[in-house]
Design brief:
231 residues; alpha/beta; Rossmann fold; 6-stranded mixed beta sheet; 4-stranded antiparallel beta sheet
């Protein structure tokens, strides 16, 4: 299980997160929702070690990870699909995926067969440069690159952003499949309410760096949640 407890995070004198707490269980999707600028991406950067927390605890499988650098967290099974995809445009699709090998022991440095079952379009594009792919294909590549690392905690930052509806449905199916396998906790940051609602087992809504609503999807008041997503 992943647990965030009383997380504060600052950028200089500006406080981005205030006493944020939530959990993420294997076999479940936990959605972090809210408008732009409320601290969702900051929370993911804190989990991956790309920005230090000011105070509070981050735990993964009962191990405190606050002090660990990003590569150590990746070796523990934490994988990040960033907003904007951030693939390597000059590398081929295959080369992009093999960058995930760096955190794996040599015996696991191969692409799992299920990657191409989940994203069959990538199998036909292995020699194409990442920058030549459409936005939807790049998003699939970014998720595939993360899955190559065999994560047990997968962080997805707005995977629907700028993606055509058909690819959004494909990504939704992939996330559902990964959850059903039962060996991965998934934290999904998303503004597209219907996408988040349909996938969520648990949710937390952020406003000005604080959790203002949280709970199980079964108890979600959709009208209340929507108030914090509309501009």
């Amino acid at each position: 299980m992943f647990k965030a407890e009383n997380i504060d995070l600052h950028y200089g004198a500006s406080q981005a997160l205030r006493h944020v707490g939530f959990t993420a269980q294997k076999g479940q999707v936990t959605c972090l929702m809210g408008r732009n600028g409320v601290g969702k991406t900051s929370m993911l950067r804190a989990i991956t070690g790309h920005h230090p927390v000011t105070s509070g605890n981050l735990q993964w499988n009962d191990k405190k990870i606050n002090h660990l650098p990003p590569y150590k967290r990746a070796q523990l099974g934490i994988a990040y699909v960033p907003q904007g995809r951030e693939i390597f445009p000059q590398l081929t699709v295959l080369e992009n995926m093999t960058t995930g090998f760096s955190v794996l022991p040599r015996s696991l440095r191969h692409i799992p067969d299920n990657i191409f079952q989940l994203f069959p379009v990538l199998k036909d594009m292995l020699s194409r440069r990442g920058g030549d792919l459409s936005g939807g294909q790049q998003q699939q590549l970014a998720i595939a690159r993360a899955l190559v690392t065999r994560p047990s905690l997968l962080l997805l930052d707005e995977p629907t952003e700028g993606i055509q509806p058909s690819i959004i449905k494909d990504i939704q199916r992939v996330i559902s499949f990964l959850r059903e396998q039962g060996d991965m906790a998934i934290i999904l940051v998303e503004q597209y309410f219907e996408f988040a609602r349909d996938l969520a087992d648990e949710y937390a809504v952020l406003e000005r760096g604080e959790v203002v609503l949280a709970g199980a999807k079964a108890n979600m008041d959709e009208s209340e949640v929507r108030k914090y997503l509309t501009v």
